[in-house]
Amino acid sequence: MMVKALMNRIGYLGLWFLNICAAVGRAAWFFTQILSWGAGFKAPFKRLLIQIYQLGVLSLPIILVAGLFVGMVLALQGYHILVSYGSQEAVGQMVALSLLREFSPVMTALLFAGRAGSALTAEIGLMKTTEQLSAMEIMGVDPFKRVMAPRLWGGIITLPLLTLMFSVLGIYGGAFVAVEMLGIYDGSYWGNMQNSVEFYEDIVKGVVKSVVFAVTVSWIAIFHGWNAIPTSQGISRATTATVVQASLAILALDFVLTAVMLGGF
Amino acid sequence: MTSKNLEISVGAFVLVGVLALVVLALNVSGLSYRTNDQSYFLFARFENLAGLSERAKVSLSGVTIGRVVEIKLDTEDYVAVVKMAIDKSVPLTTDTSASILTAGLLGEKYIGLSVGADDELLINADEIDDTQSSIVLEELIGQFLFSRSE
User: Fold this and answer.
1) How many domains is chain B built from?
2) Which parts of chain A register pLDDT below 70?
3) In terms of domains, do B57 and B127 share one?
4) When comparing pLDDT for B101 and A254, which is higher?
5) Contact assignment for A195 to B53 by CB distance below 8 Å
6) Which residues of A touch B1 (CB under 8 A)?
């Protein structure tokens, strides 16, 4: 009896592992299917515009407000650390470098996963539940090209732009706190920043990070929508899985990308 | 949402994103800088700047009154020529002296001015004659070692 229960447990473990393998395999196949540029339709560009509006324009308020406050709190925290070394003038470069290299790509991607990724999963999941995707296939319309591809490309175009806006808002928010509230000389704030920030090393590498995050988040979100169990509970689980997995993937990938970019390995 | 409005809002979104990149390139990575109109320019020659950079501040009694706008090398005397923008509301006498100082132990370099007792005032494009270069730690250690070995 004991042995049989134990064997069952081991069996479940194997099944669980096989299920994970199958899901990863499906996700990879799925990714190759949606990489097309919505070709073969009358208005692929229009569909892309709608997605940029849904994912980008509607995400603007949360991104901009978050950027402003992250920049302000960075300046405040940085000032209180740097002032004990008498180098509070370096707060500008601290705010700019930490925003451009880390905070903007990661925070924007996390917010994007919560704001836009969850909406993508729910939308596609509901399409599947109400059998719209099957109906498209029956009509000879490829749902990968019509539904998935514009959403993937919309995400890839949108997230880097949101990241850049986040950086700008954060740096100006930091400038407000440092110069207006803490009384740092504005020439030191901007001067130190401009002396230490490199266009390629800091700004371009931050954008590269955000492109990688954009692919990851959009892929995970669309896949979970398509892969959802077609019930209301299935959609809620898929939405949760999107936010959790996308957030973890962003943070893990961020470490890998940073290690590669800084050349520490 | 009509098609026209959609195009306008997406277009504005993309434009703002590109504008953000331009702001980052120009204003943050330092491809440009602004000068205030309310200032006049003074020149000073230093033997060694040792880390003084453009946009460093110029202060008098600890109060910032201007900034360094340009650094050039004089190829005849081989000294550094620093151009400073000083706030118009601060008149400086002709015997003002300038020295390169460090803010804190590890802080940035700045120019500290101290005013003399002369009656005449410096005007735009004048030069401060009395200058003192930055103290370079390596030179100081070298002098100390040299004096010990004698």
Assistant:
1) 2
2) 36-43, 264-265
3) yes
4) A254
5) yes
6) 53
